[in-house]
Amino acid sequence: MMSTEQLLALIGFVTVMTATPGPNNLMLIASGANAGFRRSLPHIFGIAIGCQVILVCVALGLGQLLSQFPQAITLLRVGGATYLLYLSWQLVRSTALHDGTAQAQPFTFFQAALFQWVNPKAWMMILTGVATFTDPADFSVSVAIVAGAFLLIGLPLISSWSLFGALLKQWLKEGKRLKLFNRTMALLLVASLVPTFGLQANEADSQLPAAAQPDETMTVPVQREPWWQSVM
After folding, report:
1. pLDDT at 171
2. Read out DSSP for 137-179?
């Protein structure tokens, strides 16, 4: 079982990684502003469940597999960047709440869940979380604790981004505010790619097999420099 110190470190790590700006949160605030909070709920739950699926896959050995094929990390980055640029363009095109463009419709549950597989920040926080907070001596329980932390802490935090966007909806109806808002969100989505491509390949790869290293599993996030570099 995790000590109190480790549990507090995990809570802090999950809070920072899920509450700070990133592709998911930026899209959720845009979705809330364009479609409303209720219609964005499938998007919110798709993010939460999609991340859980990736976390389980990493715990079952996907991280080890990726460490053998570093090209896959580059492929994920390029694929994620391409899709984020597409989403940014959709936001730029969305100029009114009633214009019927693609971005006016929020992500479905499955679209949001599948997006996590090309979301660079999701990969970085999950790989680092599993590598840092799982214990090989009690692996199943520690993985369950990490997964529970991401779900119980992360879900309300990402929901707050969509709710905030929904609260802005009425204000954005006036003039060209929505157009400016969507273009700002599009720029921030593009900017969110900078920390991802700023990571060196060996830094990202070094996180993948760490869960299997007993002497590294008890460190706290502040001692593992790469984790905060993906906050954007």
Report:
1. 83
2. GGHHHHHHHHHHHHHHHHHHHHHHHHHHHHHTHHHHTSTTHHH
